[in-house]
Amino acid sequence: MNTLFLITARGGSRGVPKKNICKIGGLPLLAYKAIAARKSNYCTRLIISTDSDEIAAVAREYGVEVPFTRPAELATDSANSMDVILHAMDWIEKNDPVKYDALCLLEPSTPFSTPDDVNQAILLYQNKNALGVLGVKQVKDHSIFVSPIGDDLNMARHYEKMRGNYHTPRQVLIHEYTMNGAIYLAAWDYLKEYHTFHSPRTYAYIMPEERSIEIDEMNDLYYAIFLVEKGLIDINIWK
């Protein structure tokens, strides 16, 4: 199966300045994804879409191709991530003679997916004859306990959800999951046609909490650094 691996990393970041090249354990965030892709068994080609010369230089250090510069209109805070993906796919179709079966998107902000995570996600994709696979994590708070609050702080909607469930033990509630941002995998032709990783034949690749950390704010970055420094994340996986 020919799989194009795509890292997306723009230069601007409000929550964490220069987030995509911030270092944890001596490695820039994007390096974790680059190494995971290159060490996996299924990487046909690995490229990055970026508008930043600085990010491009770091990417090249870790074996990532920088075949084009992302257009400025796709590098703003409001730019649609799918438009960024489709731009990269269009470029590849025009400039690469290889026909790709699937695209695997790896976002640097969730750095700790391992080469084995990538392998297992692609094996799941193949074994299920899937159209997509998404990295997910189990949520701590069940949806029965989550609801909007009114502008006046009224909790009526919360009451409606909770009614009849006040004494339900958490242990009997069905497990719920959310995407963790670590791995997005989809059939090439499906993605091109429908512009989404979601389908009735999309499957979940479940990852543990510590490998699902998504860095959006400085506190997330500090927590990730803490896990590495305490040995709770084995940095040698990416060395």
How would you describe this protein?
The chain has seven helices and eight strands; from the N terminus they run βββαβααβαβαβαβα. A hairpin with a 2-residue loop joins strand 2 and strand 3 (27-28). The model has no long low-confidence stretch (mean pLDDT 94). The radius of gyration is 19 Å and the shape is globular. The chain has 239 residues and is an alpha/beta fold. Helix 1 (29-39) packs across helix 4 (115-127). It has helices spanning 29-39, 53-61, 81-95, 115-127, 156-162, 188-194, 218-229, and strands at 3-8, 23-24, 27-28, 43-49, 102-106, 132-138, 177-187, 202-206. The protein is 31% helix and 19% strand. The strands form two sheets. A six-stranded mixed sheet has the order 4-1-5-7-6-8.
Offer a quick outline of the entry.
With 239 residues, the chain is an alpha/beta fold. Helices cover 31% and strands 19% of the residues. The protein has 7 helices and 8 strands; from the N terminus they run E-E-E-H-E-H-H-E-H-E-H-E-H-E-H.
* Helical content band: 25-40%
The Rg value, from CA coordinates, equals: 19 Å
Low-confidence residue ranges:
none
Tell me, what's the shape?
globular
| Helix count from the secondary structure assignment | 7
Topology:
Elements: E1 3-8, E2 23-24, E3 27-28, H1 29-39, E4 43-49, H2 53-61, H3 81-95, E5 102-106, H4 115-127, E6 132-138, H5 156-162, E7 177-187, H6 188-194, E8 202-206, H7 218-229
Parallel strand pairs: 1-4, 1-5, 6-8
Antiparallel strand pairs: 2-3, 5-7, 6-7
Helix pairs in contact: 1-4
